[in-house]
Protein: Glutathione-dependent formaldehyde-activating enzyme
Amino acid sequence: MLEHQGSCHCGAVVFRFNAPLITEAMLCDCSICRRRGGPLTTFTLSPDALKIEAREGALRSYKFGTEIATHHFCDTCGIFTFVETRLTPGEYRVNLGCLDDLDQQALDIRSYDASAL
Ligand SMILES: [Zn+2]
Structure:
């Protein structure tokens, strides 16, 4: 297991979690993800597993449609950091673009057809 650390652009939201070496990512084609972009973890993290440190008031969230998925972003820089997923409510997928030490170019990207579910 490795400790992965990430943040939004301005640093108001920092997070970390333990997971094996990350070699693949998921691109979701739902109405928000296809506008926003950003490769997601292929695995989900429980609230206990994702350690979030956010400056007070920094973390904002957005819901739409079924209002199950909760998309979290930084109030200052606007960067999307993680999402509480629709398929596994309460669990998170992380925006891999926010990780400190990850070569995005090396990721095996898998498309995920959310609209077909
Ligand atoms: Zn920020």
Notes: Residues 8-10, 12-13, 74, 76-77, 79 surround zinc ion (CB under 6 Å). The chain has one helix and nine strands.
